[in-house]
Amino acid sequence: MSKRMINETRRLPQGNTRSKVRAGMTNQYRGGVTRKGGVTSYPTNGSRTAGREQLGFVKLENGKEINVHPDSLIKRRGTGNTIKAEPDQPETMADHTHTYKDESESVPFGKEESKQPTESRIRSGIESGTGMQTSQSMLSSMLEGSEDEENRKQENMKKEKMKKKGLSEAEKNALVDIELTETETMTLLFIPGIVCSDQDEESLKATKDYKELLKFKVGADSYNNTGSQTLNLNQKVKDETCEEMVKMRIENEQVNNYEIEEEIRKEVEDKGAEFARIYEKSIDDIMNDRLDEAKGLIDSEELVSHISIYSQMNNTTSQPTGGRSVKGKQKTKSKAGTTSQGKSSKNRVSGKEGEGTTKSIVRESDTKSGLSDKLSSSSATQNYTAIQSKTSGFPDSLMPSKMEFIEDDAMLQSSSMLKAIKIVERLLTQTKYHKEHVLYTDYPQVELPKMDEKKNDQDENSGGITSFGLGAVQNVDSNSNKSDSNSDSDYKDEKDPIRLKPLFTFECDFTKDMNITCMDFNKANPDLLAVAYGEYDMNKIEKKNKGLVAFWTLKNPNFPEKMIKTENSVTALAFSTASPNLIAVGDSAGGILIYDCQNEEEDILPVAQASSGKKASSKKKESSFDKLTVPIAESREIDEKHTDIIWEIKWVQKPSKGEVLVSVSGDGRVIEWSIKKGLEYNDLMQLKRQATSVQKEANVAPAGIDDERKPGMTFINTGGLSLDFPAGQSANYFAATEDGTINRCSVSYSERSLDTYTGHTGPVYKVRCSPFWANDCQIFATCSYDWTVRIWNHKEPIGKQEKLICRHQYLQEQVNDIEWSPDTSSVFALVADDGRVEIWDLAINNLEPKLTYFDKINKKTKSNVPKTCVRWSRQSPVLVTGNVQGVVHVYRTNGLDHVQVSHADQVERLLESIKKEDYTDESKDSKRGGADGK
Amino acid sequence: MSEVDERIKRIEQHKGVKGIMIVNDQNQFVKCTIPEGPEAIKYGIKLREITNQARDLVRSLDSTNDLTFLRITCTKYEMMIAPDKDYYLIVIQIPNDE
């Protein structure tokens, strides 16, 4: 047994030493002592506290013993203070330590070890050591009992000390070394964590088993598939399992999408930089080659143009990344440079621009060298862009100092670009004409009073907008210009003066100096105005026979939304009501053409497409300006088409046939066209010359239809100039002739006209039925070459139908066009050949126009450009006029605003104003001496 | 002359239009009617950047949405940018310039 104990003790120091070594706390001195194993080597010779205690211990407990085994001495030395430790406990502890040590040798428990506080380790080490040493020393002393000189000396020393009875001064003051050594780590409790992965077989099996179990339970009554809250057991600390550490850097930065994009772009830029370098290299090569040549000439222009482009990049050009590949590239570059050199010199001779040659070098080198990876596919232009892209995404400080241009025709011509441009154009217009737009649409605006003031000022200053009041007329002298301004200033206080304020002029290069022949507002989009351009004069037609239809909107007064080019002058046009996208055009050659204004051909055309779908699909429309627009239907192939200028076209809604087109031409025929199956015609009327000539008619009074029936008269055809259907009617219509007569005709009776109205002494240019047509109010107006506008009432007995002659005494030009106001029954507007616009309100004054207006060239001078056309806007308080120079003027009318009244009221108003005229007409007759032959 | 060219010309002739620029993603000018120089570059690049950010905003609010037009009205100018995938059409207008 004793042997075992000794072994134990021997082993223990070993373990201790080892643990010390491991802990890195081995004391050299202590080690030395251990090796020597002798007390003699003690430097202080028992003067140390420990030594003294040890001695005391020896004396107290082992006083009798003389011989102490060196081993035990060693042990004893450091264990003086744990004398009471029982032998059993140290033993087990030692055992434990030992076993633990074995474990630690096989399994590294670094963590456990390091976790344990050093202090406790020291203590436990001491304890275990002490216990063992104590028991061992007792045993050894008991067993051996031999004497030793050294021990004797010790005894002597002890005795001396005893004599002294206390510590000597030297002893008290002596320095004491206390050694703390680390001993074997001891684990008191160790429960390793159980970690298993999801893919672990056991767990998988458990899961599987559980599922199997569930399958059996599904049908059972007690089975209920619900979620439940299970008790949360205390969670065990789990061992960490960690993947390989990835080094990450944390930077406090927010990243937006575009920043990411920029990062990506930078990569492209790097590529660009590489290209730039290659590029420079190629230039250098050219330079070198040239210099090497005996008579080498350097085309400086050729190079400078490029060097300047890339010089700015020199500073920022990034370093090459892959040396080898770059080298290879450079090599090929130089090769390419030399090969292209001859070429470039040739080019130089031929005066080709340097840039082109250098570009070609790059392209050549590209194809030849077959630049690795992505670069190989890039063309020369791509190179170019890549180089230039270097400058993108830089902050201000690095803003490129030079603009760089590329040519990208494909992109320029793309449809999206066109769309963008269209948007921009409209917006530009919107910004520019916002005020006018507001006025146009009659939108109530906050600044209105202010603007009115401004307008008043303008009017006063310029004296431009002429406003005739009731009394003004009497003051007007022959010197009208002056008196105009006078009257304007005199009567500016007059309530509600009618004024015209010019808003826009629709004109562009295409329409310049083209005669406006007709205008029409679209029925669906009241802002869309179609304007026909053409020439009436046959001589001029020959010179430029191209006709034009322009579609203007207020969205852009500077350029039409769309244009239709025709072979012949356009003389008439009309929008369809039933299908507003269709426009009928009559030209100077007698052709009727129907166009679809929609751009998209796949859109279904309500009327025309169904009928002439074949035609429409076969003929692709071209939107290009230079080409003629192909109509969806035309009358060219029809033999019986008109042979003369078509003067007017009307769409008429027929109860049975749907919408038909009625045209009147200079050849005197009135034809009804059906577009259901292409263009089908149906002669409605052949206008006949009246029995009496115009001159005769003027002399013989009263002129009536009776004259027409005179036997023996030669029936000669006459040209029709205008026709109009009363609103809402399709059976009867009025046709004006160049004889100065107006015929009322029926669509179902083509032999002769129902009624003929005579009175005009010149060709009747326009006939217009009042928009407030009713059974008891069948009033229409005509305008004529004879300077007059006449109002007729169909209901009156024959001979008395001419109700009113509206002729201003200063109106000494033919009246080209007349149009009733759509809002007020008694108001109409006319335009004359001297460029005047007159607005009449019969209810207020049927003798004089409410307003006579001239366009102004500048503040003082009036424009006398003949106006040919006048239209009221259906929705807005706007009047448009067209002149012979291809300019459409858009005016805002002021002072015509009135409350909405019923149709009957309107009729009454008109009839009232006409009635009043009976009286004035007589006075007028007396004044004029029966000029109109009544 | 194509329709685009014609329209650009027309816009150019528009009263108060200071300039038209077409810039692509790489800050290259496809077209520029402003006299070459730092001002033109500033307009081109800065407006392109703000348009990018505006588009970023629009798309972050609703990813199915996209910016079609950007108009900046300031005391002196109106700046209109019509962005597309590949380019930015920029027009500077001075509205009160008669």
From TrEMBL, chain A:
The keyword Cytoplasm applies. The keyword Cell inner membrane does not apply. It is found in: Cytoplasm, Cytoskeleton, Flagellum axoneme; Dynein axonemal particle. One of its GO terms (biological process) is cilium movement. Residues 1-56, 76-165, 313-382, 449-494 are annotated as: Disordered. One of its GO terms (molecular function) is dynein light chain binding. It holds the Pfam family WD40. WD repeats lie at residues 815-842. Residues 132-143, 368-379, 477-488 have a biased composition (Low complexity). InterPro entries: Dynein_IC, WD40/YVTN_repeat-like_dom_sf, WD40_repeat_dom_sf, WD40_rpt. GO terms for cellular component: axonemal dynein complex; dynein axonemal particle. It comes from the Eukaryota. Keywords: Cell projection, Cilium, Cytoplasm, Cytoskeleton, Flagellum, Repeat, WD repeat. Residues 313-322, 335-348 have a biased composition (Polar residues). Residues 1-11, 93-124, 150-159, 350-367, 449-458 have a biased composition (Basic and acidic residues). This is Dynein axonemal intermediate chain 4.
Automatic annotation (TrEMBL), chain B:
Gene3D superfamilies: Dynein light chain 2a, cytoplasmic. Residues 4-93 form the Roadblock/LAMTOR2 domain. It comes from the Eukaryota. One of its GO terms (biological process) is microtubule-based movement. The lineage of its organism: Eukaryota, Sar, Alveolata, Ciliophora, Intramacronucleata. This is Dynein light chain roadblock. Acts as one of several non-catalytic accessory components of the cytoplasmic dynein 1 complex that are thought to be involved in linking dynein to cargos and to adapter proteins that regulate dynein function. Cytoplasmic dynein 1 acts as a motor for the intracellular retrograde motility of vesicles and organelles along microtubules. It comes from Euplotes crassus. One of its GO terms (cellular component) is cytoplasmic dynein complex. It is found in: Cytoplasm, Cytoskeleton. It holds the Pfam family Robl_LC7.
